[in-house]
Fold this sequence. Notes:
Blueprint: E1 3-6, E2 9-16, E3 21-26, H1 37-43, E4 47-52, H2 69-82, E5 88-93, H3 95-106, E6 111-117, H4 126-140, H5 148-155, H6 158-162, H7 167-178, H8 182-193, E7 209-214, H9 222-231, E8 236-240, H10 247-250, H11 252-267
Parallel strand pairs: 3-4, 3-5, 5-6, 6-7, 7-8
Antiparallel strand pairs: 1-2, 2-4
GO molecular function: hydrolase activity
Protein name: Alpha/beta fold hydrolase
Keywords: Hydrolase
Amino acid sequence: MALMHVNGAALFVEEFGAGEEVVLFTHALFFSGRMYERQIQRLADRYRCITIDWRGMGRSGKPLGGYDVDNLCHDVIGVADALGIDRFHWVGMSVGGVVGIRLAAQMPARFKSLAIGGASAEAEPIEKVMKYENLLLDGYAVDPASVVDGLMPILYGEPFRTDPARADDVARERARIIDNDGPAVARASAPILRRVDIRHMLPHVACPTYVFVGELDGANPPAKSRIIAEGIRDSKLEIFDGLGHQPNAEAPELLADRLRAHLDAVAG
């Protein structure tokens, strides 16, 4: 599949597998649906896996506006509606997790389950917003390669970054960050960084929920995931030892197995 025109944006949508159970994958800032490649390999034998690149990121179009979290919610629901998908499982990391929480609270009938990785339900403190916006607007928007060394410790744990045996994996992740459209990602990031607090929505999430986070997450440390897990009734929290913000890349098989177990338990 390629571009779908939804909610005023051209969104890149890709499908893998053909099971009756549908899983929507939403990605983190700086990436695309490709970040879930290794996990989808483990799931596509049973599940219809659909990745959606956020507007302004990955292979999607880059409109001038519409990057607030409300519009991101409308984007994904628009894709699901266009594909005739009424109910689905959701896997979302970072901003993908934030959007998943909002939708699961507001549209509970559409969610079979929720998996949230390295997310935060809180509004970002202004000091962090200013730090990240300076990095994005003054650096990343001009030349992504100029700030990638500053981003790597935020996004990946030290064991992954410094292991000689993982050098090729680290190089691949660096390339994915650098290969983005710098101005488009910087423009898309501002409303995400300035999003509102959604902790009040957590008690309204009623579907089975798996919350996971890397012990060394430099963007949203484990305390953020604990707040989410404590707020969602009967959710399960797992903290991955020695991993950072991107367990999908740092421990792809581990995350694939955990997602498979979560989905299988719900799907029966």
